[in-house]
Design brief:
Structural class: alpha+beta
Protein name: Pyridine nucleotide-disulfide oxidoreductase
Family: Belongs to the class-III pyridine nucleotide-disulfide oxidoreductase family.
Keywords: FAD, Flavoprotein, Oxidoreductase, Redox-active center
CATH class of the largest domain: Alpha Beta
Shape: globular
Radius of gyration: 20 Å
Cofactor: FAD
Helix content: 10-25%
Strand content: 15-25%
Number of strands: 9
CATH topology of the largest domain: Enolase-like, domain 1
InterPro entries: FAD-bd_OxRdtase, FAD/NAD-bd_sf, FAD/NAD-binding_dom, FAD/NAD-linked_Rdtase_dimer_sf, Pyr_nucl-diS_OxRdtase_dimer
Order of helices and strands: EEEEHEEHEEEHH
CATH superfamily of the largest domain: FAD/NAD-linked reductase, C-terminal dimerisation domain
Distance between the termini: 46 Å
Length: 218
């Protein structure tokens, strides 16, 4: 790979430059824009100009943990916002309930999931926090071919409210990150994860789910 710093030998090059909304055509219209140029909308996808709507990768989303507008362009958000914008336009408004920043990717044999805030984001918010982590099998440990899950959870030290989580592993990541995303959406405390009634059978889980076992380290 040839760069302005010289030539580098690499087996794999990952280009991760981020996403920026293409909204320069709105300059001078009076429509309010976010710091990165995304269109600011209310919970019904309406801009500051009445009956003008925006949704999807060009628009902001309300973040339930940060308690402010944010910009995380994902297909899940775009589809929800587009549906709600349409409902508002035809007189059947339903408010957008916000996001918690959930995503997942596959990298060769590994799945990497995250939801809520990273530690850097928590520090930027100024929340006091602690982080707990664990490495646990994704199914009952005695069942054939268990795969390790690496789990991290960050929580508010004063309220125990879950603030963010990351899960990495070869199997079972999607299930756990979705449970944690649901917990974040409803502002659950880490200690409350232990009370969840989650599915159990040895091919799918242990008696205590890995996220519950991690939460017990609080």
């Amino acid at each position: 790979m040839l760069t302005d710093k010289g030539q580098l030998d690499a087996d794999l090059v990952v280009i991760a430059i981020g996403v920026k909304p293409n909204t320069s055509f709105l300059n001078g219209t009076g429509i309010h824009l976010f710091t990165n140029g995304a269109i600011k909308v209310n919970s019904f996808m309406e801009t500051n100009i009445k009956d003008v709507y925006a949704a999807g990768d060009c628009a902001t989303q309300y973040h339930r943990i940060k308690e402010r507008d944010d910009y995380i362009p994902l297909g899940t958000h775009a589809n929800k916002q587009g549906r709600l914008a349409g409902k508002a336009m035809v007189g059947a408004p339903r408010p957008f309930q916000g996001i918690v920043g959930t995503s997942i990717i596959k990298f060769f044999d590994l799945s990497l999931g995250r939801t809520g805030l990273s530690e850097a984001e928590i520090e930027a918010q100024g929340y006091p926090y602690e982080t707990i982590s664990a490495t646990l099998p994704h199914i009952a440990g005695y069942y054939p071919e268990p795969k390790n899950l690496h789990i991290r959870m960050s929580y508010h030290t004063e309220t125990e409210q879950l603030l963010g989580a990351q899960v990495i592993g070869e199997a079972g990541v999607d299930k756990r990150i979705d449970v944690l995303a649901t917990a974040l959406f409803h502002h659950m405390r880490v200690s409350e994860l232990e009370d969840l009634d989650l599915a159990y059978a040895p091919p799918y889980n242990g008696v205590w789910d890995p996220i519950q076992r991690t939460a017990r380290r609080l």
